[in-house]
């Protein structure tokens, strides 16, 4: 006799209990087994769970059905409902934040060039000019103005330039300002947040892959 197939899997993780829903069976079968599971599950006090529908898209009504069932038959409460599915809006947002936006121009004093994702400036960033990006910033020219990479809070971002002589570099909430005295710039450098010192540091571009190996993904996206 073949074993009965189960469509609900409950796992304890370091983030709490995750209830995985099979994404191949009908929703009605899923609800029936979920009801049986939560009725027989033992929990002491109110327990928060994450419901993960894997590759199944759940409508608002289906989400309500799951929430009502769990609330009615158990002491559990749903912390969130997760999935691998992206809505059209989420996919557009993901694409927007993970693509390289290139421009051929000089960013002059008073100008602000702002992009979602990675910024590639083919030209100079003059003193008083600013480049803002949610991702990395690459300047194929002289960076003498302000560059703020990862301005949504991503400290893994970098600022790279053919000639590095900025008035200010920001990565997430870290700030590095130019010294009050005159210094010469340096060719082919990048700035990054050192995780040990939690400060912005400079290094030669040939060391970029070693310090930020995941930047290869950026190049494969078309930089």
TrEMBL record:
Tell me yes or no: is Cell cycle among this UniProt entry's keywords: yes
Could you mention a single GO BP entry for this protein? division septum assembly
Q: What does this protein do?
A: Cell division inhibitor that blocks the formation of polar Z ring septums. Rapidly oscillates between the poles of the cell to destabilize FtsZ filaments that have formed before they mature into polar Z rings. Prevents FtsZ polymerization.
Q: Share what the entry says about its subunit structure, partners included.
A: Interacts with MinD and FtsZ.
Q: Name one Pfam family in it.
A: MinC_C
- InterPro entries, per this entry? CAP/MinC_C (IPR016098), MinC (IPR013033), MinC_C_sf (IPR036145), MinC_N_1 (IPR055219), Septum_form_inhib_MinC_C (IPR005526)
Septum formation inhibitor MinC C-terminal domain residues: 105-201
Name-wise, this protein is Probable septum site-determining protein MinC
Keywords noted in UniProt = Cell cycle, Cell division, Septation
Q: Which family does it belong to?
A: Belongs to the MinC family.
Q: Which organism is it from?
A: Tenuibacillus multivorans
Q: Where is the Septum site-determining protein MinC N-terminal domain?
A: 8-81
